[in-house]
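Deliverable D5.2: sample structural annotation.
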Amino acid sequence: MTSPLPADPPRVPVAEGVPAGWHRLHPLTPVVRAGSRLFALLVVLGAIALANQRQDRGEIVTDLLVIALALSGGFVSWLVTRWQVADGVLRIDTGLIRRDSRRFPLSQIQAIDVVQSGLARVLGLAELQLRVAGGDASRGGRLACLRLADAERLRAELLSYSTAAADVQTVPSGGRPVGPLPVPGAVPDPTSAAPIPADAAAVPEQLFKVQNARLAVAIALSRPGAIAFAVIAAVTAFVAVTGKTAATATFLPTAIGIAATVWRWFNGEYGTTVAAAPDGLRLRSGLIQTTAETIRPGRVQAIRLVEPLAWRPFGWCRLEVDVAGPRIRRESRSETGRLRALIPVGSKAEALQMLSAVLTSQPMPDKPAPRRVRFKAPLQYHFLAFGIDDNYVVAAHGRVARTTTWIPLEKVQSVRWIQGPVQRWLELSSVRLDVAGKRVTGAIEDRADAEARELLMRLPDLARAARARAG
C-alpha cells in the first residue's frame, strides 16, 4: 500500500496571479528628478547672464544645450528603468552601460514611504522608498515617480503582500489564496482581488499632531538654532564695530550651511501627525517635501525620549523611534543624525501617551547608579539609571540632553560587557545591548561589577524568552 504524498509546502501568496511583464515609471519622472539640479543650473546661468549684462545668440544657444544635456540624462535613466513584482520579490532594473538589477523580497521590507518633493506635488507625482534591513542607504529601493494615487495604492498592496509573505508559514492549508497584485492605472479584477482584512477600513485614530509654532521655537532653542544666533550676533557686532559690510562674505558659507540645516529640520517635521491604524503607526510630515510612512508592528528596534536642557523649563521633550534599515554611509550620517520623530516636540504627557501606544509595557529607570559613580560622572550621576522587565530594558543617562531609551528584548542582537580604566579603578562596568536599528544602542552605564556581570548572564536568556513569546 502506497503512502499518500506529502502536502505541498505553502507558497508565498504574491507568487500567484501577479501580472506578468515589466512596468515603467511616470513619463514626467525626468523632470522631477532634475528639478533641483535644473533650478540650480538656471540660477547659475542667470547670474552669469546678469554679470555679462548681455549675451549674443551663440551664448544663449550654449546655455540651452547645457539645460538640454541636464534633462537628457534623466530621460535616459527613465527609459532604461523598469520594475515588476513576481514570486514575492519586487525587482527594479536600471542602467544603460552598466546594468543594475535589484531584488527586494517583500517579506524583508521594513517600511515603504511615500515622498513628494515640491515639484512632484505640483505635478501630482510621488516616490516610493523601500526600507529593508542591511544594505546601503544610497542603494535602497526607489520607484520615482508614480502618480500619487497609484503610489499610495501600490504601497498599500506591497505592505499587505509583504505581511502575507512573512506569515506564509502560519497560513492554514486550504485557505483562500491571495489574488494578483494590481498594476497602477489598471482596472482591478473583482474576481481575483486580494481579501481585505475586516479592520482595514477602520479610520486611523490620531495620536499626536505637532504644534508648528512650538516646533519653530524648539528648533531655535536647539544646538543649530544657538549656532545660528551666535553667527548672526557675531556678524552684526563685526559690522557695527568695523563698518565693513563686504567682509561679511567670509561668513556666507557658514550661514548657508546653518540655514540649510535648520530648514531641513523644520521642513521635515512640519505638520507631523501620528495615527494608529490596523497596519501600524502612520506618520505624515513635511512642508515643501512631504513624507508618508507606516511603522509596522514588530519593526521598532528602539524608542528614545530626549529632554534637552533648553526645553526642560517648558516641559518639552522629543520622542524618537528607530527601525531596522539600511546602513548609513559615513558621508551621509550628518543627514540622518536625527531618528524618525514620533513627537518632534511635545509635552511629557503626550510622550507618555505615545509610549503606551507603542510599548506593551513601560518599565521605568528606577535602579540608580552606585554612589561612587559621582567620582567618575559628577554631573550626570543623578540621571544614570536603568530598569528591566520581561519585555524591555530601559536606560537613562545625560545631563545636558537627558535621554531615556527603551530596547525590546526580542530585538537584542548581542550583549557586551565594557570596562574602562577609570571604571576598573572604581570597580564599575557597563553593559551594551545592540539591535538592528541604524543608530541606537542600549547602554546600561556604570554599574557595580557584580551587577553588570549578572546582567551579562541574564539578558541573553530574557531575550531568548521574549523572542519565543513573540513567535
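Annotation notes: Confidence is low (pLDDT under 50) at residues 1-18, 168-201, 327-337. The CA atoms of residues 41 and 66 lie 9 Å apart.
The annotation will be released with the project's public dataset once the embargo ends.
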